[in-house]
Amino acid sequence: MFLNKYSNYFLGLLRIVSGYAFVLHATAKFWEFPVSMTGGNGAVELASLMGVGGIIELIFGILLILGLFTRVSAFLLSGQMAVAYFMFHAPKGFLFPLANGGETAFLYCFIFLYFVFAGAGAFALDNKISKK
């Protein structure tokens, strides 16, 4: 197929877009940008469960965008989303992510898990480091 030659570029694009979307979750928690995750009640506390999640999202989301330590970052982010799904969504109906509000966590979990196995794709700092 003629599209196969572009798969590495699309993988890189998917990594960058997924990392960017995830970083936005952190900025919403800490700086209420582009929206507030707290309903306008200020930033989340760093020492809270949401705060720790925001720190993970910010640090490892940026690493994912850069394609630096991609597999490790993706593994941690996938785990975070699995924990989020099982803690907050699965009790409302395990087999139905759309009904329990966990569709985003469910998809993020598997997208990030895909990067663990597929790697960073194009446009990644990991590629520059591995060449040296």
Q: SSE order in H/E notation? A: HHHHHH
Q: Compute the gyration radius: what is it?
A: 16 Å
Q: What's the domain count?
A: 1
Q: Please identify the oligomeric state.
A: single chain
Total of helices? 6
* Separation of the first and last Cα atoms: 32 Å
Helix fraction, binned, reads 55-70%
Helix vs. strand class: mainly alpha
Overall average residue pLDDT: 93
Number of beta-strand segments: 0
Q: What is the beta-strand fraction?
A: under 5%
What characteristic shape results from the CA principal axes?
globular
Low-confidence stretches: none
Characterize the largest beta sheet: strand count, sense, and whether it forms a barrel. none
Membrane topology: Multi-pass membrane protein
Family: Belongs to the DoxX family.
Organism: Aggregatibacter segnis ATCC 33393
Pfam family, one: DoxX
Characterization of the model:
The chain has 132 residues and is mainly alpha-helical. It has one domain. Helices cover 68% and strands 0% of the residues. The protein has helices at 7-31, 49-66, 70-89, 97-100, 103-118, 125-131. Helix 1 (7-31) packs antiparallel against helix 2, helix 2 (49-66) runs antiparallel to helix 3 (70-89) and helix 3 (70-89) runs antiparallel to helix 5 (103-118). The termini are far apart. The model has no long low-confidence stretch (mean pLDDT 93).
Set out the fold topology.
Blueprint: H1 7-31, H2 49-66, H3 70-89, H4 97-100, H5 103-118, H6 125-131
